[in-house]
Design brief:
about 140 residues; 6 helices; about 75% helix; elongated; DUF29 domain-containing protein; DUF29
């Protein structure tokens, strides 16, 4: 990894301010990667919550997908060494907001054999209740 080699050279040269700046940049890159991963799991979670709500039923497969998504969100968001989490509840809520429409489109392809458009599917659900449920599930999940 080029960054680690650059960091080593900065420390060896006693250029600590540049080394700290590079550490901050590397930390931000790692957080960005975590966010992308968490958002992908949130999308899966929302797709299945939308389908459950719209169709007023569930399947073992949907339950398994929800459980796997929650586990993926938890695992990706957990800071193992520093303890705590990468994303705050507010940031998780923003991610849910950001991913909802994309999830709705994919859920429309799957729910009711794909017969409804995303707009028509939206009429069958309470969007805010699903977003709240998703956040509640994420925040209360324990592996």
């Amino acid at each position: 990894m080029e960054e680690l080699e650059a960091l080593r050279k900065m420390v060896e040269a006693h250029d600590y301010s540049a080394a700290l700046a590079l550490i901050d940049e590397m930390d931000e890159m790692a957080k960005d990667d975590k966010i992308v991963k968490i958002q992908a799991y949130i999308k899966i979670l929302l797709i299945h919550l939308i389908k459950q709500t719209a169709e007023k039923r569930t399947t073992k497969s949907w339950k398994r997908s929800i459980a796997n998504a929650l586990d993926g969100i938890y695992s990706s968001n957990k800071r193992h060494r520093a303890k705590g989490f990468y994303l705050t509840p507010e940031e998780l809520n923003e991610a849910i907001e950001d991913r909802f429409n994309r999830s709705l489109s994919e859920a429309a392809d799957e729910a009711f054999e794909g017969e409804l458009s995303p707009q028509d599917l939206l009429k069958t659900i309470d969007k805010e209740a699903i977003k709240k449920e998703a956040l509640d599930l994420i925040l209360t999940y324990e592996p």
